[in-house]
Amino acid sequence: MENKKIKMRKGIIMSKIIMIDKEKKNFDNILKILKWNLKNVDMEFISTEKEILERLEKEDIADLILIDIQMVEKNILKILTKIKKKEKWQNTPIIFLVEEEKIANNINIFKMSGVDYLKKPVEEFELLIRVENYINIRRLKEDVNIIAVNKMIELLISLEIGNVHNGVHTFSHIKRVREYSAILARNYGCVESVVEEIKTFSALHDVGKIALSKRILKKTDLYNQEEFEEMKEHVLLGKKIIEKLGLKKTAENIALYHHEKWDGTGYITGLQGKEIPLEARILALADAYDALGNEREYKPAINEAEIDRIILKEKGECFDPELVEVYLKSKEEFIEVKEKFSKKCENIF
Fold first, then answer.
1. Which residue from 85, 96, 78, 191 is spatially nearest to 134, judged by alpha carbons?
2. Shared-domain flag, residues 63 and 204
3. Number of domains in the chain
4. Is 209 tagged catalytic?
5. Which of 45, 113, 309, 317 could form a cystine bridge with 80, CB 3.0-4.6 A?
6. Which residue, 119, 136, 153, sits at the end of a domain?
7. Which residue positions in the chain have pLDDT lower than 50?
């Protein structure tokens, strides 16, 4: 490789690329090219089918997958099917590395699961252009998700704004819960891309309420049993709204499962323990902390010591025990967010 950087367009932020190849030297060569020309690239090498399947179960997904088709030739259809069946991986572009004489034999595979291919030996400039373009396309799709979230938040708040107190409460509540969710996710050990995803979509946890009757939405005291049953429908309605918007599974999980409880006594499906998606378990605790610590029409705010007592009491019942421990260790960060956003009604983002 020439000792000279190729001038690239701006736009790549920290990007995760997985390379599947049986030869570590191929990975090293491509890593060298990308690191030399693109500063914020993190690459991961996978060389066996077992490692591929294990990697698909992890929380953090990649922005791009490079696959040496020779490496997985015998099991290529099985591996590609596994990748595409994982909902959170479905939008991850795949670029195949293939020898020129094998291109014609693999056209159907490219059409089925890949977005592109590069001929081996890979040319440096072509590699850089393809990597940059496909990662930027993926980033644009993420931006579309964020725009949709913002629009739904605006709608949710607008429905409450007729009651000034409710409008301000909803606005501030969304902001605080987003921050609490990010703290829990980060300190639990989630990678930053997952933290940001949970933070973004946590804002939509109650989006189903926009489909509830005004009678339910505007009520200022406790619900009776019939009203509570109607209120519970907001999680199903939220899931349907998010499905229609085409947002990520994370958003659906937060909307549908954030009222589930660790012991299985929550609603609406009765999931328990780690059957409940992590993002929903995080939201449940963040939402509860905010509800306890802030005034409502039917109750006063509770002090921090009493909040801790209640959350500890519900550890292993309502809340994931591990997340409760994370919460307790993160208490200073929670209080800082609470103080910052307790009375301010400012831009959520």
1. 96
2. no
3. 2
4. yes
5. 113
6. 136
7. 1-12, 157, 159-168, 344-349
